């Protein structure tokens, strides 16, 4: 059993939790993920590691309550336990293995979209701890969905915020802000790390390809075991089929087949919708009254 | 009673069982078991024992069954096997113990598997528990993987007085017994859980959610955590795909994923959270036991199911009993058929599978007749789901994170067949991690051999 040590609401429907998981805390690195299973009947949910405290033996996760399982998770409080919590899984970020001297020579831009700001944070923090100055863009639909801005500002040299509706910071999406930095502020970058919704990572990659900037993305496909035994998380990178859980989750954004991955992400859309309805309405959702086929 | 024939075993009616996940074979009751036991002629030099990878004293336990001493029979089996309720169900007895039974020359062999199963089930129902050793020898052994190889190795070492901890990557112990083999062949709550609890009764600790190579490494177990030896029984869980167009479409699964969702995550049960997309028309590509399991699972989820296999019925690698059960339940066999492409609709979903017909040509290096494509035989199979069951290979995670552990070109760990010794001191290995995908009982045999090897190593160290 894995105890919840801390719980915070970062934004509407976005939660942060510190989980006691000694083995994971001891051996994890930025870029890796964990799988959590709430209870006996729960499903296995992959979440990127957002921070860790090796001394305290805790790992921080951030999740958006978007489906039945994450909504159920959000109801858990400090002192409650999750049945299973396994990791670290996947490969650590390539940057972790690079010598500090090499890193310092690079001009790096992190691009975080929505709840994707959480997995960007440990990477930027790692850079700060190794004396590397980096820039960061946090993008979201509106002001309410911006998370970890204060934390990020402490570790990034420059932290820019962009909202689609202009309710806070720069008005426009992250691509607009990248162009603004390069064209209007005279910035240049050797490397972009983009983490967020798949559609955002796709469009950032298209832009940086045009601009000739190497780009790393962190893929978040459907997973089951997370250890390479099933291939649910497979995706096409260049000419090869890769398993995101063991070969990734980080890949070269200019080689990922985003369209295929987006289609695979919605494979269980109907099942997910039914699960949310069942959670909200319980037994009332039966017999296909809404035309969806009921609880079948 | 016809002495040339096995006492028949009761089974669920095919029409009924095709709609549920309850066990197909109901097993013998005590009277039936005692009657079947009389068919054994108690050979002085029993051939059946030589056919068993863990060399169970078969005439010994059958004699006890014949006399009605079931508890005694269970003690005889326990000397050799930690998982009799599993083996009695899933071993390919027809090519092992029963193949060598003298009775089999003129008639049907003694039903050794069903008798072993009866003894194990009776023991569970009568709450017979194994006895842990009275004293421990103070030495610690880590076992990686809680499948048949790991459970057997751990059980044997615990009986010898070692302090054993099993590390398992998934959230449940059992390996293929929990994620691979379906409920209807191997019930989880009763059979598998009890056998794993029996290994715990011997003093073995099981730590789940530990991925060796990620959460910790073999080197750390040996240096920081104070283990004196390690057994690697991590299996062969890496699925193969064909590499044909359309294989990443929605609706194409590896058999591992499909079976894991159903068996481990219980997706077939509404009260569990994990979803499964069960199509209306399913093609399972492959002809092994895993293919049969996937096909029969899809059938129970309500689909029309085709087995698509490139050779003929005679070459099907699955157990005869499983093929027979699959046919009885209504699985359609498209033999001498090979997929070439999966057709995908505009939403990325499977809408069909282009196949070609095959014929068997000259024998290849392995002696099997090589299937060759029949000219102009292309056709489209109308399916919405495809399950690839083409075999698995060992996951490279452990070998790639362990200094000095040699693997061969198939990424199988190189280990001595007799004692499981690898190229790294103190590290032993067995089961599918060494041989590539094989059977439960062979993995158990390897776990036993390695336990002996580890004991010899640590006794002289």
Task: Jot down its keywords.
heterodimer, A: 296 residues, alpha/beta, Elongation Factor Tu (Ef-tu), domain 3, Rossmann fold, seven-stranded antiparallel sheet, seven-stranded mixed sheet, 10 helices, 16 strands, globular, disordered C terminus, B: 461 residues, Fumarate Reductase Iron-sulfur Protein, Chain B, domain 2, FAD/NAD(P)-binding domain, 3 domains, five-stranded parallel sheet, 18 helices, 18 strands, 34% helix, 17% strand
What does this 3D model show about the protein?
The complex is a heterodimer of chains A (296) and B (461). Chain A has two domains: 2-89, Translation factors (Elongation Factor Tu (Ef-tu), domain 3); 94-266, Rossmann fold (3-Layer(aba) Sandwich). Chain A contains ten helices and 16 strands. Chain A has helices spanning 22-27, 68-74, 100-105, 117-129, 149-155, 174-184, 198-211, 244-247, 258-265, 269-281, and strands spanning 2-11, 14-20, 33-37, 44-53, 58-64, 81-82, 84-89, 108-113, 135-140, 158-163, 170-171, 191-195, 214-218, 234-237, 240-243, 250-252. The longest helix of chain A has 14 residues, at 198-211. Residues 284-296 of chain A have low confidence and may be disordered. In chain A, strand 3 and strand 4 (44-53) form a beta hairpin. With 461 residues, chain B is α/β, with parallel strands linked by helices. Chain B has three domains: 10-125, Orthogonal Bundle (Fumarate Reductase Iron-sulfur Protein, Chain B, domain 2); 140-237 and 393-460, FAD/NAD(P)-binding domain, CATH 3.50.50.60; 241-390, FAD/NAD(P)-binding domain, CATH 3.50.50. A five-stranded parallel sheet of chain B has the order 5-4-3-6-18. The model of chain B has no long low-confidence stretch (mean pLDDT 93). At the A-B interface, helix 1, strand 7, strand 14, helix 9 and helix 10 of A face strand 7 and helix 13 of B.
């Amino acid at each position: 059993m894995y105890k919840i040590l801390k719980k915070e609401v970062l934004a509407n429907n976005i939660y942060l939790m510190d989980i006691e998981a000694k083995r994971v805390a001891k051996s994890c690195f930025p870029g890796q993920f964990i799988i959590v299973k709430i209870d006996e009947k729960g499903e296995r949910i992959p979440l990127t590691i957002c921070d860790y405290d090796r001394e305290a033996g805790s790992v921080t996760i951030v999740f958006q309550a978007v489906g039945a399982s994450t909504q159920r998770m959000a109801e858990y409080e400090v002192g409650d336990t999750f049945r299973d919590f396994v990791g670290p899984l996947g490969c650590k970020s390539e940057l972790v293995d690079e010598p500090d001297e090499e890193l310092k020579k690079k001009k790096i831009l992190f691009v975080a979209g929505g709840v994707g700001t959480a997995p960007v944070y440990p990477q930027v923090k790692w850079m700060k701890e190794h004396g590397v100055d980096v820039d960061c863009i946090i993008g979201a639909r509106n002001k309410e969905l911006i998370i970890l801005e204060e934390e990020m500002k402490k570790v990034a040299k420059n932290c820019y915020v962009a909202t689609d509706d202009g309710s806070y910071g720069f008005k426009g999406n992250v691509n607009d802000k990248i162009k603004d930095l390069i064209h209007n502020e005279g910035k240049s970058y050797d490397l972009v790390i983009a983490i967020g919704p798949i559609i955002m990572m796709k469009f950032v990659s298209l832009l940086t390809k045009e601009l000739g900037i190497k780009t790393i993305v962190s893929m978040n496909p459907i997973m089951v075991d997370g250890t390479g035994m099933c291939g649910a998380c497979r995706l096409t990178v260049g000419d090869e089929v890769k398993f995101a859980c063991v070969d990734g989750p980080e890949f070269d954004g200019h080689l990922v087949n985003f369209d295929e991955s987006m289609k695979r992400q919605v494979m269980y859309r109907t099942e997910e919708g039914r699960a949310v309805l069942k959670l909200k309405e319980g037994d009332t959702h039966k017999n296909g009254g809404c035309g969806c086929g009921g609880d079948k | 009673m016809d002495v040339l024939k096995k006492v028949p075993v009761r089974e669920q009616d095919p029409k009924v069982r095709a709609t549920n996940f309850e066990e197909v074979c109901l097993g013998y009751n005590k009277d039936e078991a005692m009657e079947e036991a009389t068919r054994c002629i108690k050979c002085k030099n029993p051939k059946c024992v030589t056919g068993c990878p863990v060399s169970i004293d078969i005439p010994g336990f059958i004699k006890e069954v014949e006399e009605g001493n079931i508890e005694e029979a269970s003690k005889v089996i326990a000397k050799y096997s930690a998982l009799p309720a599993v083996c009695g169900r899933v071993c390919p007895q027809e090519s092992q113990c029963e193949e060598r039974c003298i009775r089999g020359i003129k008639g049907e062999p003694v039903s050794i598997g069903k008798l072993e199963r009866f003894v194990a089930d009776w023991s569970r129902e009568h709450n017979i528990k194994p006895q842990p050793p009275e004293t421990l020898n103070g030495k610690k052994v880590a076992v990686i993987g809680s499948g048949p190889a790991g459970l057997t190795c751990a059980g044997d070492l615990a009986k010898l007085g070692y302090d054993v901890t099993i590390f398992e990557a998934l959230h449940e112990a059992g390996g293929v017994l929990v994620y691979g083999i379906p409920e209807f062949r191997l019930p989880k709550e009763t059979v598998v859980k009890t056998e794993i609890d029996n290994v715990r009764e011997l003093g073995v600790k099981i730590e789940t959610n530990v991925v060796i190579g990620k959460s910790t490494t073999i080197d750390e177990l040996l240096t920081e955590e104070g283990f004196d030896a390690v057994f690697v029984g991590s299996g062969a869980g890496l699925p193969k795909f064909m590499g044909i167009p359309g294989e990443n479409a929605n609706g194409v699964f590896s058999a591992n994923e499909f079976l894991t969702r159903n068996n481990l995550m219980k997706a077939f049960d509404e009260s569990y959270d994990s979803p499964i997309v069960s199509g209306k028309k399913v093609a399972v590509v492959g002809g092994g036991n895993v293919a049969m399991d996937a096909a029969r699972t899809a059938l129970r989820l309500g689909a029309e199911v085709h087995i698509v296999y490139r050779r003929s019925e005679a070459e099907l690698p699955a157990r005869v009993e499983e093929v027979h059960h699959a046919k009885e339940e209504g699985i359609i066999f498209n033999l001498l058929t090979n997929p070439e492409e999966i057709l995908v609709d505009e939403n990325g979903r499977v809408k069909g599978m282009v196949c070609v017909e095959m014929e068997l040509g000259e024998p290849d290096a392995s002696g099997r007749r090589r299937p060759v494509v029949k000219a102009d035989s292309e056709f489209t199979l109308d399916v919405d789901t495809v399950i690839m069951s083409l075999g698995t290979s060992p996951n490279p995670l452990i070998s790639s994170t362990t200094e000095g552990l040699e693997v061969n070109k198939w990424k199988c760990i190189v280990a001595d067949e007799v004692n499981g010794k690898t190229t790294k001191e103190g590290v032993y290995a067995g089961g599918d991690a060494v041989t590539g995908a094989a059977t439960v009982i062979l993995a158990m045999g390897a776990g036993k051999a390695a336990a002996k090897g580890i004991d010899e190593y640590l006794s002289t160290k």
